[in-house]
Specification:
about 70 residues, elongated
């Protein structure tokens, strides 16, 4: 009885952990996509790539800072 209960608790823990990590990875991928897309937009408007990347990164960081407040 105890082993089944322990297994169930551990299984639920790992399932929850898996869901959390999957969500976090998806959010990171979404932010990476936004960074690449914004950098590419700025480059197409004539901005150097390194400068475009820094501006895009700052915009995304600022957006995320505002959303967390």
């Amino acid at each position: 009885m105890l082993n089944e209960m322990t297994f169930s608790i551990v299984k639920n823990f790992f399932y929850s952990l898996h869901m959390l990590l999957t969500t976090e990875v998806a959010e990171i991928a979404e932010e990476s996509h936004a960074l690449i897309y914004k950098t590419e937009q700025l480059k197409q408007n004539g901005m150097p790539e390194d400068e475009a990347y820094i501006i895009a990164k700052d915009e995304i960081r600022d957006r995320n800072t505002v959303n967390k407040k």
